[in-house]
User: Fold this.
Amino acid sequence: MNLIEAAKRQVQELTQQAYERAAAKGVLSGGATVSATIEIPKDAKNGDYASSFAMAAAKPLHMAPRAIAEAIIAHLELEGSYFASAETAGPGFLNFRLADKWYGEVLSVIEAEGVRYGESSEGKGEKVMVEFVSANPTGPMHMGNARGGVLGDTLANVLKRDGYDTWKEFYVNDAGNQIHKFADSIHARYMQLLVGEENFPFPEEGYHGDDIKELARQFYDQYGDSYKDKPEAEWLEAMSAFGLKVNVPKMKEDLLRYGIEYDQWFFESELHESGYVEETVSLLTKKGWTYEKDGALWLNTTALLKEKYLREGKTQEQVDKLDLKDDVLRRQNGFYTYFAADIAYHRNKFEKRGFDRVINIWGADHHGHVARLQAALDGLGLNGSERLTIVLMQLVNLMQDGKPVRMSKRSGKAIALHDLLDEISVDAARYFFNSRVSTSPLDFDLDLAVRQDSENPVYYVQYAHARICSLLSRLEEEGEAVPAAEEVDASLLQSGEERALLKCLSQLPEEIHLAARDLDPSRLNRYLAALAGDFHRFYNAHRIKGEEPALLKARLKLADSVRAVLAVGLGILGVNAPVKM
Assistant:
């Protein structure tokens, strides 16, 4: 249950009822339809909720907003509602103040919903795929994968909480040029083992990492020199298959260590082998979106994008100024391009597997690919412009001692995920990588991530949970168990710190919904930091142990509710909620 939305709805209902009473008595003109906004004032001195009803009604009622507001206040009936009082402010705002009933409801809802607190049906069961990481299986997982992994995983968790039917997928690019280059690199290192590095050149665009040397060594250990004189087609197939058989399980292992488990690993090769890529390109041809030129088959991306942009509101003049280009779907040699496979893959998501919506987490360097893919899906009649959403993710700057860290200790190349997780905890990695909106670059401070004090944000939040667990344990030893919500007198929780904490507790369902709506799971980090801060302020200002029984019960229930909500929020992030620290 979202108590913030429930309170807003009640403000709307109470105000409308008061207007109808005032109209029935002739104080206000009747029959007006009023669309008012209801906001939470930044300053609590202005009440807990504010309605613009009087100002919105001024024009249809032909009255000053202040006079309308006073009439509404005079006809409000708040008994039994979430509100204790209401008043007129400024030019005609209606400011409502919450009653003890609402604060008690916060504790009751958290207790009743337990680990499901924050769940809603906003998504209405819409079937949504979140595809993320999808790294080439030609080397170790790196830092970009680390950020994309936690963003995608947490976003899928948030969407599920908000009532969507979510599916997590990894797309394995096990076909095309990068796999040819991968096998070529393994072959070169294999041949160098046999004849010496100086006697066999390494391909200029090959993969230079130590992992390739290790794969070549493993291949040699298994097959000896039996592939030394094999024809290219034979060793290409054998070495790509061997490399993938080693690397894909390693990727799965790294991601499992990182707390990520997919519903499916989808292999690009399946699209080619089943004929689905060819079929998809044929469909585009039948719909008139392709043409042949220089022996290749091209997609008329220019025409598709022009249609898309005009549909979205751009003028013809604006569209004509764009530097639009067409794309090759099938090369002169008969091989389909990566773009052709990508169109087929997304057609598979929508048409064959029936996803209502698809969300991809991509690096910012792919921004030019977004509209082209959406337009191609539009050309297939799949409404890709609306159903396919791409979340573009900015780069990570790994920092240590105030300086950028550019090299991996093991390979001398890009920072590998397994190297990072050897340095810091999975909890710290997941929390830090989700701490900023995806469109912002992220500075990841290694020194801060391992600190065990309040400067480290994940430690700060986890410590609040552990602190409450320790408190509950000590009080339980003294015979003070956490009471049921119905046994608690919420009216005793009157201080500013207690009321702020209860309000913060009520916000989790709204934060989850907004994170899902905006595709911004970093809202959860900010929420948890705020909740931990509110708890620490409450605990530093008020005693629990030693208070008179009714107040002790109320504060004990409040603390336990914070513990429960912290655990729920950390769970959505894939971060542990420790009992001791």
Notes: Residues 232-257 form the longest helix (26 residues). The mean pLDDT is 94.
